[in-house]
Amino acid sequence: MNLSISAVIKKLEEWFPKQLAYDKDPIGLHIGNVNRPLTKVLVTLDVTQRVVEEAIDKGANLIVAHHPFIYRPLTAINTNTPKGKVVELCLKHDICVYCMHTNFDIADNGMNDCLSQALGLVNIKPLIPTKREEYSKLIVYVPVTHADEIRQAMGDLGVGKIGDYSHCTFTTEGTGTFKPLVNSRPFIGEVGQIESVHEVKIEGVIPTSHLQNVLNKIKEIHPYEEMAYDVYALQLEMPGAQYGLGRIGEVAESLEAVEYIKHVKKSLNVAHARFVGKLNKKIKTVAVIGGSGSSYFGPVKAQKADLFITGDVGFHEAQDAYDMGLNVLDVGHHAECIMKNHVANLLNNWVANIALDSKISTEPFQFV
User: Fold this and answer.
1) In this prediction, what percent of the chain has a pLDDT beyond 70?
2) Which runs of consecutive H residues, i.e. helices, occur in the chain?
3) Is 90 exceeded by the pLDDT of residue 164?
């Protein structure tokens, strides 16, 4: 396998952009050196000593986790403590630990989409809006002989994705002029001579967060030594460009809460759950936030959700939900482990057989 750890991280950050994360959320590289060849990726919810030992056993030198390993700054690395032992094991075995937290929660096809899809919800949209994607207009100038190749590549890289349409570009023709100077190696023309070339201008919109990656890849195949291009910031709202925490959607068939809860437990592979509300309530609209979502009871109530599925609901928060008439199903924080298989599959669809989902449960609770 000729793939670096940094290449895998770069791909993950294309799917789940770091700029979507909440401020001060400690995402990214936590341990290790990314400038090494990849052996295998192990995807986990949490990084524990048992998970690292599993990575060693399975020959994985990159652990991708949802929950940040170093959530609060360490004042020391004592290898006789649980976290210190993890750091020591990773360094001894050249293992990197990379974490994607709220950016994965918020991003398309991330945690909350994963949970919503597992539940079979339809008409899914963000629950708590966080930001809108900014867009730019990218214009690339290319000789007419290479226009089709560059246009196709731009579309394949996401330029011109508008709603349910892709490869939306506009092309105009004209004459480009340039004079190659000393030390240049022109694709067309001679050093010291002004050259005129029949060129086309290809333009399309692109999410600003993807712009640099697109430019880098287009430059690799563009025939000119110095690619001519323009970038303009756009002030427009694109379909599907709203990002947000959590999801809200509808069930295919309305059920009473007592029956729908059975469906939730089976879909999320949860043995036990805690419920606040009325078990005879008809459930049609469902809100979901993976992890701990009790601080969002107000916005969820305002969205008129029949049921809010989340985790880590405290006693007093549960009382608040009951008093405001909000039905809440606490499936526990560990329900987020659904992300392990999801992310491993994404990576394996990108490059075959590079990822494994951890078989270690990091659920600390037992029900007795």
Assistant:
1) 98
2) 5-15, 49-58, 82-92, 102-106, 111-119, 147-156, 211-221, 257-267, 297-302, 315-323, 339-350
3) no
139 three-class SS: strand
Q: How confident is the model at residue 133 (pLDDT cuts 50, 70, 90)?
A: confident
Spatial separation of the C-alpha atoms in residues 232 and 204, rounded to whole Å: 11
SS3 for 309? strand
Cα distance between residue 294 and residue 173, in whole Å:
57
The answer to whether 247 and 115 have CB atoms below 8 angstroms apart is yes
Q: Is 286 exposed, middle or buried (0-12, 13-18, 19+ CB in 10 A)?
A: buried
Q: Residue 32 and residue 85: Cα distance in Å, rounded?
A: 14
For residue range 301-347, list pLDDT tens digits in order. 999 999 999 999 999 999 999 999 999 999 999 999 999 999 999 99
Cβ distance 54 to 76 under 8 Å?
no
State yes or no: pLDDT of 239 exceeds 60.
no
Confidence of residue 275 (pLDDT cuts 50, 70, 90): very high
CA distances for 318 relative to 102, 325, 326, 367, angstroms:
24, 11, 9, 19
Burial of 268 (0-12, 13-18, 19+ CB in 10 A): buried
The whole-number average pLDDT for the span 164-172 is: 93
Q: How far is CA 238 from CA 13, 128, 137, 198, 350, in A?
A: 21, 18, 13, 33, 27
